[in-house]
Amino acid sequence: MGGPTFDDMTQQGVRWTADQVLALAPDAASRKAGSRLGAAGPWSETGSSGEGTVWGLCKGSGSKPYQTVVDIADTAGPAYKCSCPSRKFPCKHALGLLLLWAGGDGSVPDAQAPEWAEQWITSRRQRAEQKRTSGTAPARSADPEAARRRAEKRAERITAGAVELEQRLADLLRSGLASAEQGGYALWEETAARMVDAQAPGLAARVRELGAIPSSGSGWPVRLLEECALIHLLDQGWLRRERLPESLAATVRSRIGLPTAAAGPAVRDRWLVLAQYDTADGHLTTRRIWLYGEESGRTVQLLSYGAAGRAPALALPVGLALDAEVSPHPGADRLRADLGEQFAPPAPTAVRPEAVSTAQAVARYGEALRDDPWLESWPVTLAGVIPTPDGDGWQLADADGKSALPLGASALSGSRLWRLVAVSGGAPVTVFGECGHRGFIPLAVWPEERGEPVPLC
Amino acid sequence: MNRIPGMTESSCSSWEELVTAALLGTERRTPPVVYAGRDAPTALLDAAAVQTVRRRAGLRPAAAATPPEPAGQDPRPPLPPAARRRLAMLLADRPGAGSGGRRGTAPDLMELLPQWLATANEHGYAAPPELLPALLDAARGRTDLRPQALAFAGPRATWLARLNPDWRFALRSAPGGGSALPALGDSAEVEQLWQEGLFAERVTLLAALRARDPSAARELLATTWSTERAEDRLMFLDSLRTGLCDEDEPFLERALADRSRNVRATAAELLSALPGSALAARMAARAASCVSLDRTQGQTTVVVEAPHECDADMERDGVVPKPPAGRGERSWWLGQLVEAAPLAVWPERLGGRTPEEIVALPVADDWQSELHGAWCRAAVRQRDAAWSRALLGAPASPAAAGPGAVSLAERAKLLAALPAGERAEWVAGFISAHGLSEAFQLLGVCATPWAEPLGRAVVDALNIARDAGSYPWSFSGVMGLAERCLDPATATGLDGLTSIPDEPEDASPGAVGYWTEAFQRLVGTLRLRATMRAELMAR
Fold it and tell me: What is the superkingdom listed in this entry's lineage (chain A) (predicted)?
């Protein structure tokens, strides 16, 4: 790192917004504690360097202030170090410091890093450099033969699991879905546990969701049949994966839950961060980040996981664009990707994703299903749509007043809907979101004329 | 078949048959599928998988509903970017449940929101649309925020409030410029809304018109007065409080004959606040007949002869005949007469004395607190600075030995009638003499930021409190006010207080550290306020 481009770009320092900083918080309590620390009061000797480092001393309850330093230039998201005893990550001091810096009121001046901050940065950068030079050297596959044997063993387990699951689905259909209503969660929890044992986490997650369907309101038999049929399809796909086209086989493997690695050639582009949101499933937090490549016109999704209540490590500032490489994973839809090297810190951009009409949006989803029948939704950007109340729900209506996409139920609660409606004010807007069989989930909105994207999640 | 509300799909009759077979079970219902060598459940699942993907792939957009009318344009300029981020930060600091504990050294951001909004409104900025939901949610929880928040939020907030029942309060209390209001100069539209509007819209219209053109508002109200319901008349009459003037007298005088007692009482109260009104003159005559000087004793004394009855004319002028439980009716009537009489009557009646001299006179037979209390209420109602000053007395005099204005609440109200500078000086004197423990209410009526003698008095008193060794949370109310009301420019003078001094011998354990923390928060908050102001000034 540290080429001339990098320095030029950061001298001015593109500061993040408070929202972007707060998105890093591991939980609501940290967000709150961090906002309280985002003011000059407890801070001293703060500063930031052109290389994307921010540091400061924060007065705590003890006599010695905490030393907080954040490296925001790291390709894998910001890195933090704080001398406080908190096990939250990032801690409230790191969040407060970034908020102070984001405030841009001169309380974090450009400066030379003090020694304690410099040491940490230098050693971090060195480690990163070593990692890079050693490349993605396959450290684990020292013994390819052993790895192959492990993979075979796992495939056998999954096959056994898939066969067992097929049997259970057949039993269910034989006695009727109505019996599932009495069975409740326990039946499916047990089956899901069997799939975990079979090392097929994708199957396990799908099976676990079946348990909630009978209590999900009217029309549940339809939804239950659909999901059972798709699990059956996935089982069959796995059992016949040898005979599938390679890209579909890759999709099946990834849907089953086998880890995939980025395989395609890295694509360098200016990637606009469209959305970042977390979903929690048990102890695991999954963060999804949508990127749009200004040159390539591609939309890709980055995934990052946080276990046991920790925030996922990867965090990108929504609304800014990064000059970076991403490497797509194998699979038919080619949505999933990994973030590679970042060549410059995030910067604002006027570019918006290529937009489609509501009819084109559902057509895109339909086409994508051809390659991946298990797809819940497809990322699209709608232009010139008006958020419109429709009975109990809302829809995004084409400005010509002909057709519309209903918003998905999960988009109707919370602040997301109202932020979308507020930005629109009854006028057409551009909306990025996920278009699927459950409706449209808006994730970012642009005012029609000009302006930065407003995150909705 | 319509699984997604509003989304249509290519229909398929066999899908429904598949669902029925699946629901009942293939043992009871043979699925309508080709088996091709598979068992019935597997064949059913195969067919269902094909149908599921087919149904999803064949989705079509729904028919568009009628979009809402666009929100009114907001012609105000947008916020500077730094101020926009600051607002987002203030709104993100929503008070959560169970935060508990002490406050630490960081500023209380939510408490700074009112100031931020007031400054933004002074500059006439438009609110960023994406922050309106958070702003409306904040105003929903705190009624004191609403006037400023809604003025800042502008026409789009009222537009949003029509779509979200949670924010309906924004329609009720839209200050002046709700988008529902017609241009106030357009008399035909005003007339139409007044005739046909909902009650809330009419209250808003009347208040807005009254703020702009008091006579026009009164005349508008007079056009329909006789047909309004009693509760509505009361609300409408109340809106005449703004911009009350002598021209209102004939209308108010007519309202004294209203069918509703509450309307009569409000009309009488408004008239008594007009010292030149006929009602005020009648009250003056009644009150004066009850109070006189007795020079026969060694010392000139005020003698009170409370009224013996409450006649029909008094009742018509708003005197409530029946006292609350536990009060004698004669003193009750006296209090009302003196309260409603113009204060100018007293110097004339009591030997040409100034208000100070009158207040200093002894009052015979324990009538002092009754009489002085009524004068206090009159001074507040008539916003009379000279009488307020006299009744407040010297700030250093102990409350119990002062004139009639014994209670702090009354003193706070009297202070409001004084000019801002004098108010600050009086409260500063009070704090220097009595410390902070009783100053909270008085500080609340002082203009912000605090004028210099007051700011110094508060800081000095806090410093003294710290040196006395008590814990800072005994003063948390004043500390919070100081954070919001001290002039940010004083922050530099406070740096000395944020260092940790030696613990005094008799201090409560750890108090010194907590004080330092509290002062750090004070200084931090003042700095933040200065920054907020600068951000809003930047164009």
Answer: Bacteria
Strands A320-328 and A336-348, sheet pairing: antiparallel
The token pair at A148 is: 């192959």
Q: What is the pLDDT of residues A14-46, one digit of tens each?
A: 667 777 777 777 777 777 778 777 776 678 888
Structure tokens at B386: 């000279």
Take residue B19 and report the two structure tokens written for it. 């669902």
For residue A401, which amino acid is it? G
Domain range annotation of chain B? 13-57, 81-91+110-172, 295-418, 419-537
Mean pLDDT of B400-425: 73
Q: Is A159 helix (H, G, I), strand (E, B) or coil?
A: helix
A53 Cβ neighbours under 8 A, 6+ residues apart: A69, A70, A71, A72, A73, A113, A117, A121
Q: How many CB pairs (< 8 A) connect A and B? A: 262
What distance lies between CA B151 and its chain's CA centroid? 13
Closest CA to A433 of A388, A385, A392: A385
- Rg (alpha carbons) of chain B, rounded to whole number: 33
CB spacing of A222 vs B132 below 8 angstroms? no
Residue type, A105: D
Q: Which residues of A103-112 are buried (b: 16+ CB within 10 A; e: fewer)?
A: bbbebbeeee
Q: Does A4 touch chain B (CB under 8 A)?
A: no
User: Hey, is A410 helix, strand or coil?
Assistant: helix
Peptide bond preceding B449: is omega within 30 degrees of 0, i.e. cis?
A: yes
Q: Give the pLDDT band of residue B101 (cuts 50, 70, 90).
A: very low
Q: Which residues contact A264 (CB under 8 A, 6 or more apart)?
A: A327, A328, A329, A330, A334
Tell me what percent of the residues of chain B surpass a pLDDT of 70: 87
A18: nearest CB among B5, B44, B89: B89
- Rounded to whole angstroms, how far apart are CA atoms B86 and B93? 11
Beta strands in A201-283 (DSSP E): 267-281
* Closest CA relative to residue B43, chosen from A223, A179, A161, A166: A166
Each residue of B270-315: pLDDT tens digit? 888 888 888 888 888 888 888 888 887 778 888 888 888 888 888 8
The answer to whether the CB of B240 falls within 8 A of the CB of B210 is: yes
Dist CA A285 CA A310 (whole Å): 8
Best CA proximity match to A285, nearest among A246, A265, A314, A243: A314
Report which DSSP code applies to A395: E
pLDDT digit string, tens, across residues A349-375: 888 999 999 999 999 999 999 889 999
B288: tokens are 């004066």
Class of domain A358-455: mainly beta
Chain A contact present for B502, CB below 8 A: no
pTM of the model: 0.73
From residue A240, how far is each of A155, A246, A372, B64 by CA, in Å? 12, 12, 16, 43
Q: How far is A423 from chain B (nearest CA, A)?
A: 5
Q: Tell me the pLDDT tens digit for each residue of B193-249.
A: 888 878 877 888 888 888 888 888 888 888 888 888 888 888 888 888 888 888 888
Q: Which residues have a Cβ under 8 Å from the Cβ of B307 and sit 6 or more positions away?
A: B286, B290, B314, B330, B333, B334, B337
Count of residues making up chain A: 457
Strand partners, B262: none
Of A260, A261, A229, A258, residue with least CA distance to A159: A258
Q: Please give the single-letter amino acid code of residue B185.
A: G
pLDDT given at position A428: 93
Q: Of A390, A392, A398, give the one whose Cα is nearest residue A431.
A: A398
Contact at CB, B64 and A401, closer than 8 angstroms: yes
